[in-house]
């Protein structure tokens, strides 16, 4: 049971992170020209977001400081929620995205998931 829970939660966390990157890249594309400059903005935004995530907020970050991890996660998920709200004009979806992000990330910091760090899943 624990193994199923941990893997399911890890999958949901990962999909939520991918959605956050996609939302921010889409918002950059919409705010830019939607032409080649939009594509450059989307690719640049996705690159910066993934780099920030890898440096500070990934399960095995380069800079392993708990406060920075929390700040980066909060800033990026709030930015994605605000992008859904203001750029895509979907307040309902923004609220749902923020609520799911809070619930899933809180579930990921309590046992049994936090005991395994999302990697060493029991057999």
TrEMBL record:
The chain crosses the membrane at residues 6-32, 39-60, 66-86, 93-113. Keywords: Membrane, Transmembrane, Transmembrane helix. The keyword Transmembrane helix applies. The keyword Transcription does not apply. It holds the Pfam family DUF2568. This is DUF2568 domain-containing protein.
